[in-house]
Design goal:
- Helices cover about 45% and strands about 15% of the residues.
- By secondary structure, it is an alpha+beta fold.
- The strands form 3 sheets. It has a 4-stranded mixed sheet. The chain has a 4-stranded antiparallel sheet with strand order 2-3-7-6, with no helix packed on it.
- A hairpin with an 8-residue loop joins strand 6 and strand 7.
- Helix 6 packs parallel to helix 8.
- The longest helix is centred in the C-terminal third of the chain and has 37 residues.
- The chain is globular and about 80 Å long.
- The structure holds flavin-adenine dinucleotide.
- The site of flavin-adenine dinucleotide has 19 residues, from strand 1, strand 3 and helix 10.
């Protein structure tokens, strides 16, 4: 599938950067958006209460979007694992219609991929078809009350116990907790070894000794904290190697980081479209708003930043799919796209005046949802750290 310099630029779609996308990829993007638009309309108002929405996850499977994340051999519908570019296109397309559906889909991927990439055949068989078909909800549990950006300092311990381990400690700000059916828990197996002493485990959501509570955010993101009190896990529940848990985490985060940027691009595009429409239909001082240069130039700035973000995201994803080293490209894509989306959503509200702040308005919803993307999967400051370090490699 050609990704650069495609030969069918006659396909007219102002939103989809024909420079980088083939016609097949553009169709994939518009199909994702179309299906999401038909089935998920929560972004247009009436979002859920920030708990896991199992009906929506089942619907994501039923309409065929969720299975596209996973290989047919493991209960999904694609040949092989998802490409980073397809993941980005899915997230961008769905985000333009429903941030809730987008987030639910992304979290099935974030929690499912460490198992798919590093689980034993039995573990993959037990969980991935269920996750791919929306019948099981996974969670990726890395962050702790005292270990966020500095994840290598995590303290939840895994003590050897007979043939397996006992896990003790806390995780906080875990998407889908405490309702997840399965957690990928990152635990310390070697004291004082930093990132080299962490192991990833699969833990069932109803394991004895595991409890938790939901946390409320400004957005409707399902999230919570869990506590593990001597939770027993078998040797087979280890993902990858003992003390190799950071490789498991990074394997998934490398794939998902550009796609956080794609989520942001989808939100920015939705905000830009709303602002452009409002500037055409709203009149003041006997003119359409767009006739004021202050407004039209702001729209131009919003469109330019959105498109630049999209190009960085597609470029990072394409490089990932080619097997290139993407540390800097992914960090740039995530940083730029999430910061751009925050700017665009805020500017769209300004162009709307008071109506953009009304509860239930698309922009009120986007304003709440866009904020967290600058924090999770590496804050903007951490992305700048990574980029700066890469400059001197
Ligand atoms: C909506 C949402 C969903 C999430 N989902 C998950 C999940 O599913 N699984 C999971 O494990 N975690 C999840 N998280 C947690 C997220 O990954 C952490 O919040 C993030 O890594 C930042 O950690 P922290 O909140 O502890 O902030 P801290 O690490 O305490 O950072 C606070 C501030 O200090 C800055 N800072 C820290 N270190 C440096 C440095 N070296 N240089 C410059 N500045 C620095 C940060 O950029 C930030 O501005 C989620 C968070 C949110 C908001």
């Amino acid at each position: 599938m050609p990704l650069v310099g495609c030969d069918d630029r006659g396909v007219d779609d102002h939103q989809t950067s024909p420079f980088l996308l083939s016609a097949a990829h553009r169709r994939f993007l518009s199909e994702a958006r179309e299906v999401a638009g038909e089935r998920f309309t929560s972004v247009r108002g009436g979002a859920s209460d920030g708990r896991v929405n199992r009906r929506l996850i089942a619907e994501l499977a039923d309409c065929g979007l969720l299975p596209r994340l996973f290989p047919a051999a493991a209960g999904g519908s694609r040949e092989g694992t998802v490409s980073a570019l397809d993941l980005c296109l899915l997230r961008e397309g769905i985000a333009q219609e429903s941030t809730e559906a987008e987030t639910a889909l992304a979290l099935q991927g974030l929690g499912g991929y460490p198992i798919l990439q590093s689980g034993s055949p039995a573990t993959v068989k037990r969980w991935i078809p269920e996750v791919a078909q929306g019948r099981a909800v996974p969670a990726f549990a890395l962050t702790e009350p005292n270990a966020g950006s500095d994840a290598a300092s995590l303290e939840l311990t895994a003590e050897p116990d007979g043939d397996g381990y006992r896990l003790t400690g806390q995780k906080k700000w875990i998407s889908n907790a405490p309702e997840a059916d399965v957690y990928v828990v990152f635990a310390r197996t070697t004291a004082g070894a930093g990132a080299r002493g962490v192991t990833a485990f699969v833990v069932e959501g109803d394991a004895p000794g595991l409890s938790g509570q939901a946390l409320d955010l400004v957005s409707h993101h399902p999230i919570g904290a869990i506590e593990l009190e001597g939770v027993a896990v078998s040797r087979d529940s280890v993902l990858g190697e003992v003390d190799g848990g950071f490789r498991v985490a990074m394997g998934t985060l490398d794939l998902f980081r550009p796609s956080v940027g794609a989520f942001a691009v989808g939100m920015a595009q939705a905000a830009l479209d709303a602002a452009a429409e409002h500037a055409r239909s709203r009149r003041a001082f006997d003119k359409e708003l767009r006739e004021f240069q202050a407004v039209s130039h702001q729209l131009a700035e919003m469109a330019t930043r959105t498109e630049a973000a999209r190009l960085l995201v597609y470029a990072a994803a394409t490089a990932y799919d080619r097997g290139e080293r993407v540390t800097k490209a992914s960090a740039m894509a995530k940083l730029f796209a999430t910061e751009a989306a925050q700017f665009v959503v805020d500017a769209a509200i300004q162009i709307h005046g008071a109506s953009g702040l009304q509860k239930g308005h698309l922009l009120e919803h986007l304003y709440r949802d866009v904020r967290a993307t600058r924090i999770y999967e590496g804050t903007s400051e951490i992305q700048r750290e990574i980029i700066a370090r890469e400059l001197y490699r």
